[in-house]
Amino acid sequence: MKESIWTCIVSVLLALCFASPTTLAKESDRFLVELLNDENEPIIESVHKDEVEKLTDAKVLQPDYIREISLQVGTLQAKSWGPARIGADKLIEWTKDLEGIVIVAVIDTGVDADHPFLRDRLVAGYDILDKGWDPTDEHFHDTHMAGIIVDTTPDNVKNMPISAVDKDGRGYDNHIAEGIRYAIYHDADVTNMSLVGEKYSTYLAEAINYALAYDVVVVVAAGNESMDTATLFPASILQHLALKSYQASREDLSKDTALPQPLLLL
Hints:
By secondary structure, the chain is an alpha/beta fold. It has helices spanning 2-10, 49-52, 82-86, 88-95, 141-152, 173-185, 202-213, 253-256, 261-265; strands at 30-36, 42-48, 59-63, 66-68, 102-108, 126-127, 157-163, 170-172, 190-193, 217-221, 241-243. The strands form three sheets. Strands 6-7-5-9-10-11 form a six-stranded parallel β-sheet, with helices on both faces. The protein is globular. It starts with a helix and ends with a helix.
């Protein structure tokens, strides 16, 4: 019962990817390699391409692909239309008396913890990039995503900000996968990744499958421009929820939504 409720909740999160086709084809300057640590145990690290040939006894696994976000320009609204548009206002009413906390780990750019709209809706997060406990948002995309989650869910749904994407909106698979594992180890019920790229990554897919094996709901982005998710990653993985953005006008729903209408409209 709990799993179905959580799945219902996250299925109405507006997992906006804010990616345009011109930002997808980025060649990575790093590789994931398998090395032996001091205990002679295999570990995987991200290494700059100029350093790879200097390594001895290293196995190159794959490029450390880059996933990106870039904001979709919208219009200023005096009032949020999103919750009523997707039925989240009804969902909040139906679930407001449920006990327990739902933690949504937003693997993105960090968060503005002082934003008044997010008051009492955050739990401790982590900065993957700087290996610290202050995932401050230097880009604002994660703060935007956290606001959407707050706007479309009841008060017991909390945001766990995990900074794995830099201030330019670029995130390596290595950091994103580490963010997924951090979320699992710190009791997240849901992971949200509003980022996208074109290249399939075995390393990132393994991290996503690891989350699914722990019954963590995985929400990813599917593009804002009616893009075919078969060409995107991680949106092309079938076991998770891949959501697109959409317009305020109802006639645009079928074009801009990646999920069946009944699931979004409840």
